[in-house]
Specification:
Largest sheet: 5 strands, antiparallel
Low-confidence stretches: 1-28
Oligomer: single chain
Number of helices: 0
Strand order of the largest sheet: 9-8-7-4-10
Order of helices and strands: EEEEEEEEEEEEEEEEE
Structural class: mainly beta
Helix content: under 10%
Number of strands: 17
Mean pLDDT: 83
Radius of gyration: 17 Å
Strand content: 35-45%
Amino acid sequence: MRKLSISLLISVLFVSPALAQDRTTRVVEPLPAAASIQNLYRVSADQTPSGFIVPRFVSLKFTKVNARTGPSRDHAIAYQYQRRGLPLLIVAETEMWRKVRDISGDEAWVRKPALSGARTVIALRETSLRSKPKPEAREVARTDVQAVMRLESCDGNGWCQVKAENGLKGWAKKQDLWGASRP
C-alpha cells in the first residue's frame, strides 16, 4: 500500500499587531516538548472558575483569535493566533478569560468562548503514523512538522492515537507530539 502524506503544515502562524499593517507573519519555532510545560502552578478543579484543573490542554475553536496582554478587551492585542485546532495550555483563568501558553512558550490571555475542550496535538518533527502502537508496525502516513491533529487517546507505553483533518488515523510516539503529555 502506498504511504500517504499528511499536508497540514502552515500550522502555527502569529501576526503581531505592529506588523499586521505590513502583513508580515512569523512562524513560531517550537521549544523542546518538556520546556513549554514546565514551571506550572497546579490548581484543583474545585478552586477554578471553570471547575476544571489548571493546567490543562485545550484547542482554538476559531481560525483567528486575538491573544491579549491581560484578561480584558482593554488590554492590548499581543498577537493573533491563526490556526483553528491549535493546541494551547491553560495556565490560569478567570470567569471569562484563560491565560494560555503556546508551543513556543509564549503566554497571553484569550476569551473563554474562543477555546474548545477538544484535544489536539502538533507534530514536533516529521512523524510516522503507525497502524499499531509499535515501532515495527506498518507506517500508514507521515506528518509534516507542525501538523495539527486530533488526539484520540494515549496508552501507557508512550504512544498516542491521532486523527488527521482528512480522517486518517494512526499511532505516533508521544514524545513527537506537543499537547499529548499531561501537564
